[in-house]
Request: fold
Amino acid sequence: MDQQVLTPRLKVAIHPDVAPFAARGSGDRPPIPTPSNAPGASRCGELGRNTVNEEEQVTRETTLTDEDATAARLRLDLAEAIVKNRADIGTTVDETILEAVRTVPRHLFTPGISLEEAYADAVPIMKRDGDGVAISSVSAPWLQATMLQQAQITPGMNVLEIGSGGYNAALIAELVGPKGTVVSLDIDPEVCERAERGLTDAGYDDVVTVVCADGEYGAEQFAPFDRILVTVSAPDIPPAWTEQLADDGRLIVPLRVRGLERSFVFQPEAGRLVCTEFELAGFVPMQGAAENRQREVSLHGDGIVLRVDDRQPVEAEPLGLALEGPRCEAWSGVLVGGMEPWDDLDMWLATVAPTYGYLTATDQGLSTGLVTLTLRWGMSAVWDQDSFAYLTLRPVTEDRTEFEFGAYAHGPNAAELADQMVAHLRSWDRDQRRGTGPHVEVHPKTALDGDVPHGLVVEKRHSRVTVSWPQTPGRTGQVN
Reply:
């Protein structure tokens, strides 16, 4: 099945554009190094007559100039790609952000990869841990632009970035201008060194301060911050982040809620954080004191895995045995068009089901025929002690432009779990589809049950995250 057709999307609220702010020129910061003004080139000019012949020098400068011209063209193409990406889901990006993308030399922050790779709307992996898990990357440009749009950064602000690499900090530097400040923090010394090197080479070291420390504790010495942007997957909201955020500030964080990662915009309100909007997101996991990765429960070797978060109970052996048995299926009559967003359905299932995770499979796992995943990266799943069910879709038109939601299930209670998922699909379609979406808040760990909204309460180490749904019925897509 065409994965692109079924990619879930989420529309974010569109805010008024921030005040126009032109990219700083050479009078405000050192120009981007070129063959004529880079310190190394200057020294080469003084010594070159004795060590490099004139023909070699001309060739070297011509090559560098061609590379700079190519990079400049790729930056323009990248900005256009971001515009198209956002337009495809009905959103926009402020011109100030696009101008920053056109200005900042992204390739200086991605050593070891080609110019084309550096400016592709993709995610260059810069470092992996011993298990091969990506622990440092340069985020996809569309996602960086989206988070900057969420942040609504204006000139003169003091901004903290948790999770460095340099490029995003340089974009933020363009937005805050010469009177603003940016603190870019990371726990990995190698990442900090790479960020510092890129920021210096690109001429942003006058605005950006790189701090090598654990993001769990923020950067108190530079607080308060008008904006805090977290660019790693966060399992929780540490107290330091809220304490260091200005009273009218914004915290933009890819917070995991039952394994679902979204880039939330939180604002302080009466001792809690209230979400004003969120977007789909995906980042490398946070390291340090806050590290708490999702469990990967093997159902069939490493090929078929159930990803589980927030300390939910699950027993691998009986679920693995259930997978070997016959498959039960149930269909809801709830239809979706190929380009229609439905990602809030995952959050709905995570809210109303007693258990929730994501069923994933490798190519080898899919080749066994034991599972059929509509989306390549996985589908929502629920389970009990010895049975499980997962979300699926099937085409209902020959041209595959319309699909029906359903459930596949395995185990002794397969039929019951499949029927439960279908009931949740129908309730989402009836009560929440095309509505305002979930309301998310983050409360202190000490908050009493009576003081938090009714709905799902996810217990975190530092906080209590609540997900509730307003009663705003939408149009129905259910067939009779």
Observations:
- Residues 78 and 119 are 6 Å apart (CA to CA).
- Residues 54-87 form the longest helix (34 residues).
- DSSP finds twelve helices and 19 strands in the chain.
- Confidence is low (pLDDT under 50) at residues 1-62, 474-480.
